[in-house]
Specification:
four-stranded antiparallel β-sheet; elongated; 2 domains; alpha+beta; Immunoglobulin-like; disordered C terminus
C-alpha cells in the first residue's frame, strides 16, 4: 500500500490565466520509492490560519469586519476556509511535482479576498488538507486506496504574491459589487452632474454633504451618513 507524503514548496501567479489564478507547487513523495503509482485523484482544502501571524494597527483596523475588535481576537481568530481545489496526478515513482490551482478574486465581499486585501506585508499562513484516491499496481493487479485522512501540510504564502496577481489583473483598481437599485441611483447621479467616470462620481459624492449624498445612498445608510 502506498504511503504518500505531501509538501507545498512554492507559489506563483499562473502566467497565462484570463482570470486571477495562483499555482501552488506540490511535491508528492511515495514510499517505497520504487513502487509505481499509476494515478492520484487529489482533492485539497486550503484554509487560512489567521492566528499564526501578527498584525499592524492598520491591518487590525481593516480586519475588524472579519474578526471584530482586536480585544476579541482570542475567540474569533479561527481558521477560515479559502477554497477547494482538485488535481489529477499521472504515473510516477518516488516523487512528482504537480501544480495545485487556486482561483482568486478582487471581490471584497469574498472573505479570503477581504483578508488578503487587509495585509500590508509578510506571509499568509495556510493549511492544506488532502484527500482522494491513489491507484497503484500490486501483484500485477490495479488497486485503488484512499489517501489517509490525516495528510496535511502548512505553507506561508508571501502577501506580495497575491498583491502582484491582483495588480496584474486589476491594475490600480478595485471591484465593488452594488445592488442594482443602488447602482441605478449612482448612475443617475453621474448623469445629473455630467460626470465622465465612476472615479469622478465617487469623488463627487465624497466631497458632497447632505442632502445630495442622501439622495444616492440606500435608505438604511442615511442616518449614518448624516451623523
Amino acid at each position: 500500500m502506498p504511503s504518500l507524503v505531501f509538501e507545498i514548496t512554492g507559489v506563483v501567479p499562473a502566467p497565462r490565466s484570463l482570470s486571477p489564478l495562483l499555482h501552488f507547487a506540490l511535491r508528492i513523495t511515495n514510499l517505497p520509492p520504487d513502487e509505481t503509482i499509476q494515478a492520484v485523484l487529489l482533492s485539497t482544502q486550503i484554509h487560512i490560519q489567521p492566528a499564526q501571524r501578527a498584525y499592524t494597527p492598520a491591518e487590525q483596523e481593516k480586519l475588524v469586519e472579519l474578526f471584530g475588535p482586536p480585544e476579541m481576537w482570542g475567540q474569533t481568530l479561527r481558521n477560515r476556509l479559502w477554497t477547494h481545489t482538485n488535481a489529477t496526478v499521472g504515473t510516477f515513482q518516488g516523487s512528482t511535482e504537480p501544480l495545485l490551482p487556486a482561483p482568486c478574486t478582487a471581490d471584497l465581499s469574498d472573505t479570503a479576498a477581504k483578508y488578503f486585501y487587509a495585509l500590508e506585508d509578510g506571509d499568509v499562513p495556510l493549511l492544506f488538507l488532502f484527500s482522494g484516491s491513489v491507484f497503484y499496481t500490486n501483484a500485477g493487479r490495479l488497486q485503488v486506496g484512499p489517501i489517509s485522512w490525516n495528510q496535511e501540510c502548512v505553507f506561508r504564502m508571501p502577501v506580495r504574491v497575491w498583491q502582484s496577481l491582483m495588480e496584474h489583473h486589476n491594475p490600480n483598481s478595485s471591484w465593488v459589487p452594488l445592488r442594482r437599485d443602488t447602482y441605478e441611483r449612482l448612475y443617475a447621479h453621474r448623469r445629473r452632474h455630467s460626470l465622465m467616470t465612476w472615479e469622478e462620481t465617487i469623488d463627487h459624492l465624497l466631497q458632497t454633504r447632505s442632502p445630495s449624498l442622501e439622495s444616492v445612498l440606500p435608505e438604511p445608510k442615511r442616518e449614518h451618513v448624516a451623523a
